[in-house]
Amino acid sequence: MTPGQTILRSMVIASAMLLATPALAASCITSKGQFQAYKQQLAQQAANAGVGRRGLQALQQAKLSGITWKFESSPSSQSSMRYRSPEQFLKSRFSSVNSFVSGARQRLNQNARLFRSIEKRYGVPGSVLVAIWGYETGWGGYTGKTPVVSGAVTLASYCRRSPRFEDDAIAALQMVDQGLLTGNSRGGPSGELGHMQFLAGNWSRYAVDGNRDGRTDPNNAADALATAANMLRRNGWQSGRPFGEGTANFRVLSAWNDSGNYQRAIAYAAGLIQQ
């Protein structure tokens, strides 16, 4: 038996012993050297949540994500933490606001039938969805290079965030069990998934089959866009109502991202896109 197999076997045995007991929260960490101990404790929680062998193995193989740790230990390194106008926020990723709006309109026109169908079902305008899609991944052009499980577990481990994101880490492990992810699947720096960069817990809660092929896949644009609309609707989005700053729909955007900079930029861009 290899050292890795021995560690995994120990994790499975320890977790199984706790199945009949209440779940205990893993102790959050403030130094990288505590990460392995955190994973051992999270394995107990994961087993209590029904995570199986494949998910536990992915957890055992997860490594601390350096970029995630940097963001969490130095929040000022995240551009969304510094106040910016909507124009400045968009230009931090795109050459100009005009180029972003032009690209968004192009995707909106190319997928007009899909966006009409989604708006009819969920009440969320295509201009809002295509703005989020564009800002998150450049309309699917870049979905991230960080191992999803490693990013999700690192985010959950850090004391500034704990226990808010532990459910997302466990959801990522459950997705491994379901065959929707592997331990090597790549995404955003904190475990975000696919075209719209969902956290695993949100994908598990809101996923819908947008292209009606019998499965839900965050790397399929139709599924991701429909799921985003479903998430916004279930968090209070009102069909046909305005979404500018100060409105009820604008506040719903906080369910997607709690950064005021982000919310203002999406609402601003969506307003330009639909003109």
Secondary structure layout:
Blueprint lengths: L2 H15 L17 H14 L4 H9 L4 H8 L12 H6 L5 H14 L1 H11 L3 H12 L8 E2 H10 L8 H12 L8 E2 L12 H7 L14 H14 L13 H5 L7 H14 L2
Antiparallel strand pairs: 1-2
Helix pairs in contact: 1-2, 1-3, 2-3, 3-10, 6-8, 6-14, 7-12, 8-14, 9-10, 10-11, 11-12
Pfam families: SLT_2
Enzyme class: transferase
GO molecular function: glycosyltransferase activity
Report the CATH C-level class of the largest domain. Mainly Alpha
Contiguous helical run count: 14
Q: How would you sum up the major sheet?
A: 2 strands, antiparallel
Order of neighbouring strands in the sheet with most strands: 1-2
- From the spread of the alpha carbons, the general shape counts as globular
Under CATH, the topology of the largest domain can be stated as Lysozyme
Q: What's the count of strands?
A: 2
The ordered H/E elements are: HHHHHHHHEHHEHHHH
For the record, give the distance between the C-alpha atoms at the N and C termini, rounded to a whole number.
Answer: 64 Å
* DSSP helix fraction: 40-55%
Q: Pick out the low-confidence regions.
A: 12-23
Report strand %.
under 5%
CATH architecture of the largest domain: Orthogonal Bundle
SS class? mainly alpha
What do these coordinates show?
Helix content is 55%, strand content 1%. The chain has 14 helices and 2 strands; from the N terminus they run ααααααααβααβαααα. The chain is globular, with a radius of gyration of 20 Å. Its EC number is 2.4.-.-. Residues 1-25 form the signal peptide. This is Lytic murein transglycosylase.
